[in-house]
Specification:
- GO terms for molecular function: DNA-binding transcription factor activity; sequence-specific DNA binding.
- This is AraC family transcriptional regulator.
- Keywords: DNA-binding, Transcription, Transcription regulation.
- By secondary structure, this protein is an alpha+beta fold.
- The chain contains 13 helices and eleven strands.
- The protein has three domains: about 170 residues, Jelly Rolls (Sandwich); about 50 residues; about 60 residues, Arc Repressor Mutant, subunit A (Orthogonal Bundle), CATH 1.10.10.
- The strands form two sheets. It has a six-stranded mixed beta sheet with strand order 9-1-10-3-6-11.
- A hairpin with a 5-residue loop joins β4 and β5.
- α3 packs antiparallel against α4, α6 packs across α7 and α7 packs across α8.
- It starts with a helix and ends with a helix.
């Protein structure tokens, strides 16, 4: 798989819900932060989205929004509308005038991602991805969300697996949208994959994580000198090449330990360490606890402490 697919696979999105949101007339509602990824697409009309600390953004018919971790925000029929408190729920919501046909319709939803790997999504995304229908055809995303809506409403065999795959597709579609401003992207994998010189390097590293890579070898994939490559990689990815490789190896290790089923010897070999002892030393230095303690903490529902 390519690096972006690797990350999405580790996120394991699940437990999705979606609901219709409608409004009529003048209205506004403010929601508290709920620390879960959220998405929405405007089906009819328009509204304003105001994330705390940022200027309101107009969401027009067909616009798609993806939030890595939903902060406190407000939805408004117009920027100066007064807001009433709202709370996240899985039920359909009607704002403003309760009578008559709505002049605004949106499908909104949220989902969970694997807690051990949740920082991966936050590291990939800006606060908000806003794909404007006026600039690009969002019909593909709309069809994906329609399928999510249908699966959420049904209770057929394989429902959870289908929803997980649809969420993965939705995330990839949002993350690879070319209209995301490079200025808004944090330093990291997504920025690196958009760099034509660094993308082959990242693909090589992810394709063979156990290899004993050197900076000179990686620079050859980029067609650059060692020093120029190291500087460009650090600026774009936010860390040196060998540091990135170490972080990715530890990400794979944490994921494997959280699920169990592998010996330390096998895991060490799979991610590029000469021995279980060398891996354990590197893991303790990076994560702050031994691999065994991390695995036990995760099984006990206390992986958060082990990650600190």
């Amino acid at each position: 798989m390519d690096p972006l697919s690797d990350v999405i696979a580790l996120l394991r999105p699940h437990a999705v819900f979606s609901k219709p949101i409608t409004g009529r007339g003048t209205w506004g509602v403010r929601y508290p932060a709920y620390q879960a990824p959220g998405f929405s697409i405007v089906l009819a009309g328009r509204c304003w989205l105001a994330i705390d600390g940022a200027k309101p953004v107009l969401l027009d018919h067909g616009d798609f929004v993806l939030l890595a971790s939903s902060p406190a925000f407000a939805l408004l029929s117009q920027p100066d509308a007064k807001c009433v408190p709202g709370r996240p729920s899985q039920e359909a919501v009607r704002h403003g005038d309760p009578n008559g046909e709505p002049d605004f319709q949106m499908l909104g939803g949220s989902f969970q991602i694997d807690k051990v790997n949740a920082p991966l999504l936050l590291a990939l995304l800006p606060t908000m991805i806003h794909i404007r229908a006026a600039e690009v055809d969002t019909g593909r995303l709309a069809r994906i969300i329609d399928l999510i809506k249908e699966e959420c409403a049904a209770d057929g065999p394989g429902r959870e697996m289908i929803l997980e795959r649809l969420l993965e597709i939705m995330l990839v579609e949002g993350l690879r949208w070319p209209g995301i401003s490079q200025d808004l992207l944090p330093a990291g994998l997504l920025s690196g994959m958009r760099d034509p010189a660094l993308a082959p390097v990242l693909r090589a590293m992810h394709a063979n994580v156990r290899a004993g890579w050197t900076v000179a070898e990686l620079a050859s994939f980029a067609g650059m000198s060692r020093s120029a490559f190291a500087a460009r990689f650090s600026e774009t990815l936010g860390c040196a090449p060998m540091e990135y490789l170490s972080r990715w190896r530890m990400t794979l290790a944490r994921d494997a330990l959280s699920r169990g089923g592998r010996s330390l010897d096998r895991l060490a070999e799979e991610i590029g360490y000469d021995s279980a002892s060398a891996f354990s030393t590197a893991f303790r230095r990076r994560v702050g606890c031994s691999p065994g303690a991390f695995a036990r903490s995760h099984r006990n529902g206390d992986a958060k402490q082990a990650l600190q």
